[in-house]
Structures are given as C-alpha cells and as structure tokens.
C-alpha cells in the first residue's frame, strides 16, 4: 500500500545559509508514487492484455516494461504564469520466460488526450525564469534517474510483479527544449534544436539535414562555454559551442513539435501570400508603405471571403484554417500572374500532403501513403521555394 500525497516541490535540495527562498509556490507528487497510482489505474487493462496475448497470468510476474512520455509546458495565457510537468503511460510490454521478443499488452489509445496526461508538478513560475525552473525540476530529474536504475515491485491482479520504466522526454515545445537543453532562445542565429544549422545555412539548404545534437554533446559544449579552454573571443567561442549558453539539465528526445510546425509554416505562408500579392519577385526593396498595403489587402480578403480576422500573433487554430487549398484559391484572386497562382497552388498541395506525417502519433500506421511520398514531396517543396520563391531566401 502507498499513500499518495503532495509534497514541497523544492524538497530534495539541500538548504544552506546562503540559500535564497525561491519566489514560487510549487505542488508536486513524488514521481514513484505517481507512477504506482497510474499503473494501478491500468490494472484491468494490463490483466486483459495478458489474457488476450495468451499468456499465463501466474507465469508473468517479471519482465514488465513501461514506456513513459514526459511533458513540460508553460502556460503563459493565464493571469498567474505557471509551468506544468506531467507524464503519460504510453505502453506496457512484457518479456516472459518462454518468449524471445517483448509483447505489448497495453497501448494508450489517446496519447495526446488531456485524460491520459497525469500531472506531476505545478509551478507558479515563468518558464523563462531559468534559475527557478532548474531548481524546481532538478529533484524530478534526480528521482527519474534513480528509477531508471531500479525496478518497481507492484501488486497487479493479486500477484507481485516487477516493472522497469523507460522515460522519453517528447512532450516539450521548442521554447522548453531550448530552456532545458541549454540552448539560446528562439531568436538565436542557431535556428534548430536538432542540428547546428544557422539561419543563413538553413535558407541555402532546405532539404538535406540530419539530427546531430544530443544531450551529452550539449553538456560537453557547455563545459567549453564555461571554461573557454582555447582562450577564444566571444564570437569564436559561440561558434564553437553552436549556441549553447546554459547548463543542460534535462534530456529530451529529438522530435518535432507538430503545433509549432503548423504555426511556423503558416507564418511563412502568410508572408509569401503578401509578397505574391505585391509581386515582390519583380521588385527590389519595396517600401514599408507598399508592404503595409499588401498586408491590408490580404487581411481584407481573408476576412471577407474566409471569415478569418487578422491576428497580432499566429496561433494554432488560425494556422490550421489558413493552410487550406480553399484559402489559396481566395488569395489567387489577388495574384496577377497565372504562373504565380499555379506555383502557390502547388506549394499548398504539397504542404497538405506532407502535414499528416508530422501530425500523426504513428505515421506508419495512420498515414502510410503520405509517409511513402513524404521524401519526394519535401524535395519538391524545397525546390519550389528555392526557385520560384527564391526572392525570400536570398
């Protein structure tokens, strides 16, 4: 039996005379207790999974593996800024004595649902406050690291069973990844959290990128940033560490955040629409007044034809409504050249074909056809941007 309670979120940190009281209120559960509670909620599903897999209940008391997705996000649109750290039990699998491979006995049917996401820690703190964030999340990281090396014995179906936990930090948006992995903020010249590309390099090469950053490399680069072993200037040192400027304290999985992928693409398309209305490909350095008039024309067209009101800042709902073939047809009414209209239609068509791949939880199962054509489509998409729309990236 276990008691589930709320503990002081700063517990686990040794106090000293020099400590400054953290200006935050924190509520959190002990990580192991929260995991026990989540597994007990899934007890029936686990037992049913064993039966459906034809496994003898009494033979399966060890070899259970639990995949945990960790999420952490700031909630800046509320009156009191706060950060929530939560987890989701993604799957439970078992390797019995008679089997060679693990058998999955439970998979979370709705991994992105609010209902499957268990809160672990709530901090009344701004996610941009690096010092307080590290102080509060530090003990969680310590608990998680301890659990990686140990097994949990838990009674499921009346029998004690042994569980191992595997943690994957995939529920982070770009801002939070930069915060916990020690990278510069999103305005940095180092635009990517997955590779070392600068803005200039990314605009020249739109296709051939690979994931090169890692948590371990970020830690090594931080040490170089901190000690400057080669006595370099600030510019040389920054180039050497590729935008690492704080100590990484939490490992994240290299993933793309689908919501911000939508927002980033929609922001770029919104600018392309304005440029195409003003035929920027023919002009050199249009004035601010001209650009303002093109934006006004675009906003008016979207408002009257699509009921889309202008926004100060792009959000997910607006991005999803903007990125449709229907919107492109409405924009094309303001684009003088038929050739440019066709290019815009083609660009949106390719985008719509690629989008399901990064929105899907498991693309191979949910959209296999789009996944097969993704490589070709992304190549064509990049070719189109770097030829027909090259004026934006020169």
TrEMBL record:
Residues 1-62 form the V(D)J recombination-activating protein 1 pre-RNase H domain. GO terms for cellular component: DNA recombinase complex; endodeoxyribonuclease complex; nucleus. GO terms for biological process: adaptive immune response; B cell differentiation; chromatin organization; T cell differentiation in thymus; V(D)J recombination. The gene is RAG1. It comes from the Eukaryota. GO terms for molecular function: double-stranded DNA endonuclease activity; histone binding; protein homodimerization activity; sequence-specific DNA binding; ubiquitin protein ligase activity; zinc ion binding. Pfam families: RAG1_pre-RNase_H, RAG1_RNase_H, RAG1_ZnC2, RAG1_ZnH2. Residues 66-188 form the V(D)J recombination-activating protein 1 RNase H domain. Residues 190-252 form the V(D)J recombination-activating protein 1 ZnC2 domain. Residues 254-394 form the V(D)J recombination-activating protein 1 ZnH2 domain. This is Recombination activating gene 1.
């Amino acid at each position: 039996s276990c008691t589930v309670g709320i503990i002081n979120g700063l517990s686990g940190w040794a106090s000293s005379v020099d400590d400054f009281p953290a200006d935050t209120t924190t509520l959190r559960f002990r990580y192991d207790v929260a995991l026990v509670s989540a597994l007990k909620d899934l007890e029936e599903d686990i037992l049913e999974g064993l039966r459906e897999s034809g496994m003898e209940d009494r033979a399966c008391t060890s070899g259970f593996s639990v995949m945990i997705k960790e999420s952490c996000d700031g909630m800046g649109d509320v009156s009191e800024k706060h950060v929530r750290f939560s987890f989701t039990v993604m799957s439970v699998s078992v390797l019995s004595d008679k089997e060679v491979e693990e058998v999955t006995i439970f998979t979370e049917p709705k991994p992105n649902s609010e209902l499957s996401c268990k809160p672990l820690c709530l901090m009344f703190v701004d996610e941009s406050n690096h010092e307080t964030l590290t102080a509060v999340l530090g003990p969680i990281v310590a608990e998680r690291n301890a659990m990686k090396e140990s097994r949990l014995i838990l009674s499921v179906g009346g029998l004690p069973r042994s569980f191992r936990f595997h943690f994957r930090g995939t529920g982070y948006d770009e801002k939070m990844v930069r915060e916990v992995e020690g990278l510069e903020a999103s305005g940095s010249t180092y635009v990517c959290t997955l590779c070392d590309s600068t803005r200039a390099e990314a605009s020249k090469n739109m296709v051939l990128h690979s994931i090169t950053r890692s948590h371990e490399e970020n830690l090594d680069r931080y040490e170089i940033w901190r000690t400057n072993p080669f006595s370099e200037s600030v510019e040389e040192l920054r180039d050497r560490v590729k935008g690492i400027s704080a100590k990484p304290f939490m490992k994240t999985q290299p993933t793309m955040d689908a919501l911000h992928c939508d927002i980033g693409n929609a922001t770029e398309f919104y600018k392309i629409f304005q440029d195409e209305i003003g035929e920027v490909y023919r002009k050199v350095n249009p004035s601010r007044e001209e650009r303002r008039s093109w934006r006004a024309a675009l906003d008016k067209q979207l408002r009257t034809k699509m009921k889309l009101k202008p926004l100060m800042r792009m959000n997910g709902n607006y991005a999803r409504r903007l990125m449709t073939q229907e919107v492109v047809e409405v924009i094309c009414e303001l684009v003088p050249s038929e050739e440019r209209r066709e290019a815009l239609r083609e660009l949106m068509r390719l985008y719509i074909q690629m989008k399901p791949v990064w929105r899907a939880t498991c693309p191979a199962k949910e959209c296999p056809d789009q996944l097969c054509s993704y490589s070709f489509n992304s190549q064509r998409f990049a070719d189109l941007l770097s030829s027909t729309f090259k004026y934006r990236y020169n």
